Amino acid sequence: xxxxxxxxxxxxxxxxxxxxxxxxxxxxxxxxxxxxxxxxxxxxxxxxxxxxxxxxxxxxxxxxxxxxxxxxxxxxxxxxxxxxxxxxxxxxxxxxxxxxxxxxxxxxxxxxxxxxxxxxxxxxxxxxxxxxxxxxxxxxxxxxxxxxxxxxxxxxxxxxxxxxxxxxxxxxxxxxxxxxxxxxxxxxxxxxxxxxxxxxxxxxxxxxxxxxxxxxxxxxxxxxxxxxxxxxxxxxxxxxxxxxxxxxxxxxxxxxxxxxxxxxxxxxxxxxxxxxxxxxxxxxxxxxxxxxxxxxxxxxxxxxxxxxxxxxxxxxxxxxxxxxxxxxxxxxxxxxxxxxxxxxxxxxxxxxxxxxxxxxxxxxxxxxx
Length: 369
Description:
Layout: H1 2-22, H2 26-32, E1 33-34, H3 42-45, E2 58-59, H4 65-77, H5 81-100, E3 119-123, E4 132-138, E5 141-148, E6 151-154, E7 158-162, E8 167-168, E9 174-175, H6 179-190, H7 194-200, E10 201-203, H8 248-254, E11 263-264, H9 270-284, H10 300-304, E12 307-312, E13 320-326, E14 329-335, H11 337-340, E15 343-348, H12 356-365
Parallel strand pairs: 1-3, 10-12
Antiparallel strand pairs: 2-3, 3-4, 4-5, 5-6, 5-7, 7-15, 8-9, 11-12, 12-13, 13-14, 14-15
């Protein structure tokens, strides 16, 4: 059933990608198309960002409005309805952030907070016999998809952020695109027994950003602030400092390890396990049912292996970080900056981010050098 769903999603992706490519002129295509996955361009396909830097590809600015619609149709093909609505909201938040900052931030571009500075690139030939993929990204969005043998085999890294994380709407309502992912995690960690809570909270202070940053593989390397920006573009102050702002014992306390840290699902009671699965859904339900791994956690042993770890305060409105880690799973969340009103939330598959293992198996089976 999952394989059937992955093929159906791949077909929709291929149709949408081909429609977009067919709309492009020769100059646009030179920027829009990258090498076939597995070719010499893998270094570019597996390079990803979540900052407002050059993500690689064709921006909305470089396209006509009719092409904008085709871009969004491709984006929608790789997302659930809720996932698409959230991504569209994050794009629109660039206008809100510009207002929050008094329309004053200037990084040498015509507009710094720019809802049109999102990039799309297709790698390879959509729908053909060879692997192909696509990447869409800009500030606080990074979607990475790979299709091999006619089915979607990778949808990670999948990053969403929100700045502001909370903003007012009319009628005293609030816009919180990622709010449930924060609320469920806090409810879960605060429900733990004292001895479990002591193991779940790895550090009393929160890191400045997600620990794995935008690394293309998950290990214990220190990601620097400069890594979050494409070389030659705007880079922040203190570029050579670690993105987490941690060093020494604090860095070691939050370092990613092959054996997950924190409290495993096996030690949670029934209500807590329900919270954990619902929390997983806020990440894994970003993509269509046919490719989401969420049903995997219907198996109690799979949920048993998911570990919750936390850093910082467990009080609402105070800086905090958490992660969920287990086999083929890494979720990271931070809400630290702008008065705890700037959230980062990423879902990764440590074994097959970018589909590398499946791609290698395909090439081996087809004797591709």
